[in-house]
Amino acid sequence: MRALRWHGTRRAEVADDVAMPRVEEPRDAVVRVVRSAICGTDLHPYRGEIDGFPAGTVTGHEFTGVVEETGPEVRGLRAGDRVVASDIIACGHCRSCRHGWHYQCDRVGLFGYATVVGTRAYAGGHAEFVRVPFADTVLFPIPDDVGDERALFVGDVLATGYACAVGAGVRPGDTVAVVGCGPVGLLALEVAWLLGAARVLAVDPLESRRKLAAERGAYPVPAAPDVARQVADLTEGRGADAVLEAVGTDASLLTALNVVRPRGTVCAVGAHASDAMPMPTRLAFAKEVTLRFAVGDPVGDFEPLMNLVRGGRVDPTYLISHRMPLSEAAEGFRLFDAGEASKVVLIP
Q1: Residue 283 CA to chain centroid, in angstroms?
Q2: Distance (Å, whole) CA 91 – CA 98
Q3: Are 254 and 247 in contact (CB under 8 A)?
Q4: Which PANTHER family match (predicted)?
Q5: What is the pLDDT of residues 128-166, one digit of tens each?
Q6: Across-strand partners of 57?
Q7: Which CATH entry fits the domain spanning 3-156+297-347: 3.90.180.10, 1.10.3720.10, 1.20.1300.10, 1.20.1600.10?
């Protein structure tokens, strides 16, 4: 089959001779991919930022498709069903899963991300077909009146933006700052409006992203060295009530802590991986800041997320700037990495 494989820093290549996946465990399913997308998280290995990431990995953790085959213990799914996959692989049965902590599952994984998450690697969805473990936990049926591209975002990006806004405790009347206006930040912005935010400040270094945020009603703020002063000037010196951090770097988290008001909340959903974060504890303590980290949970939040999409309260497809055949996936990565695309959707 055809699939995209990572071979080194900024070296992603499409191959036509990748082995077809098959059912290996009783709760597996094989899915024919209809749509997949390139995520900001995919850029970390693409840019060579993950030591030891194995060459030959089939990338991609955002995908929809049609069930081709199921294992004997899969319940509630059958061949022909249209489905969207959770990016997070979870068993659904362990103690963490029973508590609803799917990212803490004993057998957690992430499609197309080797063993960066969990201890077992699973090929990703930048392919014509993909094997899905624990299919009756990881896959969700797509309603007939929802297209694949709208459903695609439920499996990761919308779930992460939702977790960010809810985790920050956005309340009616709040001034919210979004740090990082990529797809996750923009959907966190959308959810902040739904939770009653009175004003949203969109902080990003890229004018193109600030423009997208402004089109969704936010006030654009350049991510300049004086960003804390800019936010203070816009909030009568207070700072933002809630800050949604959607980048995952030390600098972005420092920005979030600098622009939040005293006794405000920062929720970070950017994929942080630093062991040397220069945490400004004096500032955080003096401001009595609440800082929390969160990971989107499509498994736990599928129903409210799909209801938002199905009811038209959120239509994430405006984020899509490029639709490309899978054969051109390497170019899609280049465009996304260069900031020339806001969201790339691949069509096998």
Answers
A1: 29
A2: 10
A3: no
A4: DEHYDROGENASE, ZINC-CONTAINING, PUTATIVE (AFU_ORTHOLOGUE AFUA_2G02810)-RELATED (PTHR42813:SF2), ZINC-TYPE ALCOHOL DEHYDROGENASE-LIKE (PTHR42813)
A5: 999 999 999 999 999 999 999 999 999 999 999 999 999
A6: 6
A7: 3.90.180.10
